[in-house]
Design brief:
By secondary structure, the protein is α/β, with parallel strands linked by helices. The chain has 4 domains: 4-174, Rossmann fold (3-Layer(aba) Sandwich), CATH 3.40.50.300; 180-249, Helicase, Ruva Protein, domain 3 (Orthogonal Bundle); 264-348, Zinc Finger, Delta Prime, domain 3; 373-443, post-AAA+ oligomerization domain-like (Orthogonal Bundle). Helix content is 49%, strand content 8%.
């Protein structure tokens, strides 16, 4: 059936046992797929004893899961572990190719299996954000009646891409990008593990660092690159030259001209930051021609709007958010006009990284232990007895003060003199700077 993939809990493609011949033929990323939560890399909070995921896996609860995280962080693996550890059927549906008919067929089959044999089914839906409302609605009966244990994976914010009834009936688990150390561990284990390369090759430190960097936190991608590099190794060692050559052959280059994905994205962002609209449009065109996900481009522009423009032009963030919403609504090819619009607007806007510096400076103080107690007059005084212990006493209500600004201490004593936000004189931030310096003096009693 198109769009439907079914195997038992011990499926070879989902981390189960493999025959010797199958083991040799399967991709390295498949062979090395973790079989237990203990083998899962990263996601320490999800794997902790007593965590909801641990309860589902160890306790066998029929609880539907919604896994949200970047590619290669373990979403499919978690689905397979849930299926394998609880001895349930495993059925996979791809949201790219399956329709309402396939969804209903999978749920009907799961219900029939449950009635006939008592065996439960794990229904894994990959890229659930690509499902229409009607397709997501078709999942509800199976989830509500627990005919299936739904494990749905998404790289998009589920609060925008998943219908509320499905979201409310599922346990949302947020997966974080893997760190370089996580990826390094994945690669080193694959080099030695009998399911992987079994010690047949070694790797130089330079080559290992190269593969870790290119993986970008994606474990599956890192193993694909390692497998290609191992095939190009000579005399049993993966050198940097062999890794570079093999990764190129593994089609990680950005487009047919041989540009690397991350190099082009980096150049795009730096061109917008540097106010070169022409260069930014050049890199935007290259990304569009290469088939880059327009939502990814829009996300990067939203980040840049706050990181590099900030209060020098607050409309930049509005423009970037509007572009992202438009991309979502109309799609390509029309969305290329919106992306070009936003790219030019952000490139020619005045620049300031004062917002970025401000939050980094504030977090650095907090991380260094400069916290202190909340001043008594700012503490919550709404509950009974609060005022008896001094909460809210001598608090000045700003609206009752001249200019709507009260002279009083707001920050804890440890950072009472801190000046995190240092506005520039670029664009609209020049006006913000003038006002903020006056306001800060009044607040801190330095006016006059």
């Amino acid at each position: 059936m198109d769009g439907l993939f079914e195997m038992g809990a011990a499926s070879a493609s989902r981390g189960g046992s493999l025959s010797h011949s199958d083991h040799a033929a399967a991709p390295l990323a498949v062979r090395m797929r973790p079989r237990t939560l203990e083998e899962l890399v990263g996601q320490s909070s999800l794997r902790a004893p007593g965590s909801p995921l641990h309860q589902v896996v160890e306790g066998g609860q029929s609880l539907s899961l919604l896994l949200w995280g970047p590619p290669g962080t373990g979403k499919t693996t978690i689905a397979s572990i849930v299926s394998r550890s609880t001895d349930r059927r495993f059925v996979e549906i791809s949201a790219v190719s399956a329709g309402v008919k396939e969804v209903r067929a999978a749920i009907d089959a799961a219900r029939a299996e449950l009635v006939a044999t008592g065996k439960e089914t794990v229904l894994f839906v990959d890229e659930v954000h690509r499902f229409s409302k009607a397709q997501q609605d078709a999942l509800l009966p199976g989830v509500e009646n627990r005919w299936v244990t739904l494990v749905a994976a998404t790289t998009e914010n589920p609060f925008f891409s998943v219908i509320s009834p499905l979201l409310s009936r599922s346990l949302l688990l947020r997966l974080e990008s893997l760190t370089d150390d996580d990826i390094r561990g994945v690669l080193l284990r694959a080099l030695e593990d009998e399911r992987g390369l079994g010690g047949s090759v070694t790797i130089s430190d330079e080559a290992l660092d190269h593969l870790v960097r290119l993986a970008g936190g994606d474990a599956r991608r890192s193993l694909t690159y390692l497998e290609a590099a191992a095939g190009a190794a000579s005399e049993g060692e993966i050198t940097l030259e062999a890794a570079e050559r093999a990764v190129d052959q593994a089609a990680v280059r950005y487009d047919r001209q041989g540009d690397q994905h991350y190099d082009v994205v980096s150049a795009f962002i730096k061109s917008v930051r540097g106010s070169d609209a022409d260069a930014a449009l050049h890199y935007l065109a290259r990304m569009i021609e290469a088939g880059e996900d327009p939502r990814f481009i829009a996300r990067r522009l939203m980040i840049l709007a706050s990181e590099d423009i900030g209060l020098a032009d607050s409309t930049a963030l509005q423009t970037a958010v509007a572009a992202a919403q438009t991309v979502q609504l109309i799609g390509m090819p029309e969305a290329q006009l919106t992306l070009a619009h936003a790219t030019i607007a952000l490139a020619v806007a005045p620049k300031s990284n004062a917002v970025t510096n401000a939050i980094f400076a504030a977090r650095a103080d907090v991380a260094a232990g400069k916290i202190g107690n909340v001043p008594p007059h700012l503490r919550d005084a709404h509950y009974e007895g609060a005022k008896k212990i001094g909460h809210g006493e001598a608090y000045k209500y700003a609206h009752d003060e001249p200019f709507g600004i009260a002279t009083q201490q707001y920050a804890p004593e440890a950072v009472a003199d801190a000046e995190y936000y240092r506005p520039t004189t670029h664009g609209a931030e020049a006006g913000v700077k003038e006002r903020w310096e006056r306001v800060r003096k009044i607040v801190r009693g330095q006016d006059g």
